[in-house]
Amino acid sequence: MLTQIYNGQILTPSGWINDGSLLFEDSRIVEIRKNSNIEPRADTAINALGRYIVPGGIELHCHGGGGCDFMEGTEEAFKTAVMAHRKHGTTSIVPTLSSASLPMIEAAAQVCDELIEDPFSGVLGLHLEGPYFNPLKAGAQMPELIRLPDPDEYHHIVEDFNCIKRWDSAPELPGAIEMGPYLTSKDVLPAIAHTAAEFDDVKAAYEAGYTHATHFYNGMPGFHNVREFKHAGTVEAVYLMENMTVEMIADGIHVPPTLLKLVYHMKGVERTAMVTDALAVAASDSNKAFDPRVIIEDGVCKLADRSALAGSVATMDRLIRTAVKLADIPLHDACRMVAETPARIMGVYDRKGSLQRGKDADILILDNNINLHAVYSMGKLVK
Questions:
Q1: How far apart are CA 173 and CA 255, in angstroms?
Q2: What is the CA radius of gyration of the chain?
Q3: Which residues contact 103 (CB under 8 A, 6 or more apart)?
Q4: Which of 26, 89, 286, 380 is deepest in the core (most CB within 10 A)?
Q5: pTM, rounded to two decimals
């Protein structure tokens, strides 16, 4: 079935095409035109009415949505959370588990292994946020599940399941540096997170394959004093690792808009992704989090004692609006940071992350106020 979306402002890798047309057949983009002439062969022609046509969002860090958490480890939970975020512009997702026990990881990985076999599931693989973290920077991670890197454990998980695509650790822990080359040899992205690492730790980690920083500015120290001496923290070290990529929780709360803008200027679009770090309450009518310690207050998830933020209630469309309206980031760059950059980080840019002939028909239509008008995932209109 051939579908044409015409009379839109189309974001392509070469820039905007005004009054253009995008044609897709089944799940693939077949043509992008610099005109709005109706294609006679089209089975369906949709007038975008001058709205923005941009690539579908790719979510690198999300714990759940629609009332379900990926930690539940069931197919129903996975599908419910994925669909909840799909309705808000996330056309591909790397589900995230917080620090978990081995049985919990195995259950979720078993489900994810099955879902990644279906290209229409939207699931690109599994992201393990922990459990190899610095307890001093646990934040909202469950402290009883945090532990030191265990080669027997992570070898088993990576080698027995096909879905593991990313693993976050604190690089200063004993054994964490050795874990980096192993993960990269298995095409798993090592990332640094929940860490007290200083410059030398980050440099060693980067050289060992840790090329990404998780929820930048959160769960990591910045500039600080050790007695009378000044030290660069993880934040400054990541800036100095020129080619290290970062992700920002762009809800406007985890990272204030001024810092969103700073990261954008310092790291650039090519090395900056935006994520939700959303919990089960995102895109849901429920206010109940999977973790009983978590409350919802001030538009964000917190630990009940208010000692730390605990994830967001954000969705993909909110990330774009926050970047544009609060951080003064141009729309085309905001869209690249939720699509192109995540696709490059996860190694799927050959098929996702931009509107180009031959790529998956993952498409968002946004109005002039950056509100979501329509979502197409693999060419299917999301209701």
A1: 26
A2: 20
A3: none
A4: 89
A5: 0.95
